[in-house]
């Protein structure tokens, strides 16, 4: 569990305001490095065969201009595909929207000391009631888990099935730590301590409910 928590702590997180064609947006940024080449990381992030090994089963036409669907999760269109440097996709839960309201960008480059630096930027028009309740942790914790899964995949560590992970004490501790870390990122924007505490509490309760 200690190694997993340390991996979560290696992620640099930022919260910003942004804009999209659909309106004012919120931006969450995650940045971390991997002990692998950019080509290897790119293949893990874009290969239909490898994505299910660390994230979710995926279907679709995985090419520039094509579409994708993650099982039980988001889908969308592939807007930019510049291997092994930059990938941009729309990120839609449910029915597609007429204007871009949620974009995910992945950037790869050399990391200090070797390996590959990955930056993930999720820009989305967020319903005010959702942001008011959860803040950046609503999506941030999920992305933290995804990047942790990618690290495990690239280093040959088996984390287990989704059903096992939901009850795994180490993963639950990681989600709790991630929720707190996103609270710190929110606090850096000038949010009040009470606001940060309320959002972290709600996010943690959502991702780490009591076990039956």
Q: How would you explain this protein's 3D organization?
A:
- The chain has 212 residues and is of the alpha+beta class.
- Helices cover 41% and strands 28% of the residues.
- The protein is built from 8 helices and 8 strands.
- The chain has an 8-stranded antiparallel sheet, covered by helices on one side.
- Strand 1 and strand 2 form a beta hairpin.
- Helix 1 (2-9) runs parallel beside helix 7 (169-187), helix 5 crosses helix 7 (169-187) and helix 7 runs antiparallel to helix 8 (193-207).
- It is globular.
- The chain starts with a helix and ends in a 5-residue tail after the last helix.
- The model has no long low-confidence stretch (mean pLDDT 93).
